[in-house]
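[Q] Does anyone have a clean structure-token version of this?
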Amino acid sequence: MLNNPTLNQTPIKINRALISVFDKTGVVELAQSLNELGIEILSTGGTATVLKDEGISVTDVSDYTNFPEIMDGRVKTINPLVEGGILGLRDQHGDDAAANNVQWIDLVVCNLYPFSETISREECDLALALENVDIGGPTMIRSAAKNVGWVCVLVNPADYPTITDELQSGEISFETRQKLSAKAFGHTAQYDTIIHNYLKDEKLSDDFSITFEKHSEMRYGENPHQFAASYKIPGNNKPNILNAIVHQGKKLSYNNIMDADGALACVREFDRPACVVVKHANPCGVAVGDDLFDVYTRAFNADSLSAFGGIIAFNHTCTKDVAEAITSVFVEIVLAPDFESEALDIFKKKKNLRVLEIGEFGKRTPKLEVRNVDGGLLVQDVDTKILSKDNLTVVTEAQPSEQEIKTALFTWKVLRHAKSNGILIAKDNTTVGLGAGQVSRVDAVHMALRKGGENVKGAVLASDAFFPFRDSIDAIKDSGLGVVIQPGGSIRDQEVIDACNEYGIAMIFTSTRCFKH
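[A] Here you go.
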């Protein structure tokens, strides 16, 4: 290492470029511009072939190094003549370069094997993943990014025009080189993080790293004074909100994406036709059935007041009759796996309505979720646990019917998407009343009862955590509710059970909590 390193911050002239890219977007146009400026081009493998086919003068790296590409192309650019040409300090290493026949390489254009796309394939195994780990590319990129005083590096085709425009003046400024150097280090850092996360054995390893790429910038965040942008997992093309086809409507906001993601998560709980209406991150109306129009009608009417300006999600194709009904009310977003063409035409009547085609999706799969805290992160796996009848224990003298047990399981699927403390009342495969985000459980009960009104008679009430006192049961004694489902586990469980027995209410324990903070 140099004892007193200095950094050249003057503009540099490009005499020689090395181009080796997997993504060949725009590379022919870039190379043609370099050729017209009299810049020598070194290249490798498939990139060299593409450029030569376009009549562009190219020197193969193997001809420059007098060393062939070997081992099926695994070794081609890791060579002192290449790395020395990139890393050498022009004002200090000239004698070394001359003595070893090293020629300066002033511009490196490189992007990497698509590791993230490879590991997203169904058929990908460890051998295929490792074969798509790029070695020479990151080495060249990091070398060029390090030697920013004398070398310029390009990793993103979107930046090609910046260089070709600037080269019309004959030189590349230090400001441009520094900006592209930072991008290059970010590119390789992201690449290594993806590889690390794929290979590590533990989900929650000692050195937890994550990486994302920008999807879009937003006007603001939750409130107008907050900056915001959305980022997506590199190479992830699975059905989700960020990958959706947006058929129409205004640009999605921060809150839109949050609510739409919550609606999608909830509707993925069900196989039968389902509709979920979400408002401020809570499922205010949910229904399942056999006919989508009926399902939508029940879900919307479950709490039509809260549904105003909400998000509507379906897990089956949105039909024209459903679309016609939706256009008669105000909602922000409609999302579904796909839409009938007539439905899309009908939605055009509401030009500001966002219509999101998600693509075919199934049940939620395990993944990690991350939340910021001051000074760090909290990481956990998403709650995808599925309850069945076998997980339930009836603890009261009154016994629920088979239909009430099915309703209890339906209610539980919805409740875990509502903010804690949460109480949800449902019957006939439709939500009736929700009390969510309350600091007191009995307050959540009162809210759900008020929302449900007369419809709570004969319904099932679900609680996302145990009842600490019998006051919640006392609150429902005259409501006509027949069944309560809750985790159990309180030191006062028997007191709560006794209250249910006193009022003839059946109670089911899940032994599982579904908090959502």
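[Q] Thanks! Anything notable?
[A] The chain has three domains: 16-199, 238-357, 387-509.
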